[in-house]
């Protein structure tokens, strides 16, 4: 049987119509699941006994369980979820003045092989299903008595390598009958799957796109990010120009600062040249050191940022959350022993 959290509102309405019922059933069931937060079909008091039997014969309501949770000194919450097949995946809630931001994973493990990322130390086992992402929000909001206001699909995995499940998750997160998270409060990050970037240009929600760039030339990016050998910067930038021409949306370029690797003013100047004709800003990311990786944190972030700003590039330095519990950028790795 299908997990009912796999279905968008339109898909569920289509399913009920195919069963010979009315489409409004989709809204009715969504209201029970996402507004009233029931955990069984029998709790749906305005649904007939006969239809509940149909629901129970076709669908299940299942949630991941929390294996481990940690709360950082800065209030960041890190949760290790155990899924139905006993695989583990992490999620992080970061608390900002404007709301609670959920950093969610899209895969169990990752095959992109970025050399600076601890998440890639665990090779991809499988994609997360839509229901496994959706139900995490339900569990987190209930467990910690909070409302998720923003979502960044930036945890373990490459979201565009799990394209349809991620987009269905985004649709449910945005749905007024479900979580009501504004499209502009949702960001998907990709390391640069060119074909999917072009496809994403036709997505009907104004979701933010972030691109993990991390190097301004092919030689350096090839060493840091193997994906660049399949999709070099020329092709990546062409796909981003296509995306912007179609959407008129601003891009975020993510750039992790690695000591003596990509943090000199030479690289800053190359980056300026590479992105100057895009509507974008650069998010500089302090590197979070991991014992298995040899990279070190750059001490040149301020100078690098200043060089970009002087050239008219919008630039920010990412605020760090949860570093003391290994919840910061690039540190997620679904370990039972999180410290």
SSE topology sketch:
Blueprint: E1 2-3, H1 9-18, H2 24-35, H3 49-58, E2 59-60, E3 65-71, E4 77-82, E5 88-96, E6 99-104, E7 107-108, E8 126-127, H4 130-144, E9 148-153, H5 163-174, E10 186-190, H6 194-200, E11 208-212, H7 218-224, H8 227-230, H9 233-247, E12 251-257, H10 265-275, E13 280-286, H11 301-310, E14 314-317
Parallel strand pairs: 1-2, 6-9, 9-10, 10-11, 11-12, 12-13, 13-14
Antiparallel strand pairs: 3-4, 4-5, 5-6, 7-8
Helix pairs in contact: 1-2, 4-5, 6-9, 10-11
Describe, in plain words, how this protein is organized in 3D.
The chain is of the alpha/beta class. Helices cover 33% and strands 21% of the residues. A 10-stranded mixed beta sheet has the order 3-4-5-6-9-10-11-12-13-14, covered by helices on one side. Strand 13, helix 11 and strand 14 form a beta-alpha-beta unit. The radius of gyration is 21 Å and the shape is elongated. The protein starts with a strand and ends in a 22-residue tail after the last strand. The relative contact order is 0.12.
Average of the residue pLDDT scores: 93
- The SSE order reads EHHHEEEEEEEHEHEHEHHHEHEHE
Give the neighbour order of strands across the main sheet: 3-4-5-6-9-10-11-12-13-14
Q: Percentage of helical residues?
A: 25-40%
Low-confidence blocks of residues: none
Largest sheet: 10 strands, mixed
Supply the number of helical segments: 11
Report the β-strand fraction as a percent range: 15-25%
What gross morphology would you assign? Answer: elongated
Measure the end-to-end span. 38 Å
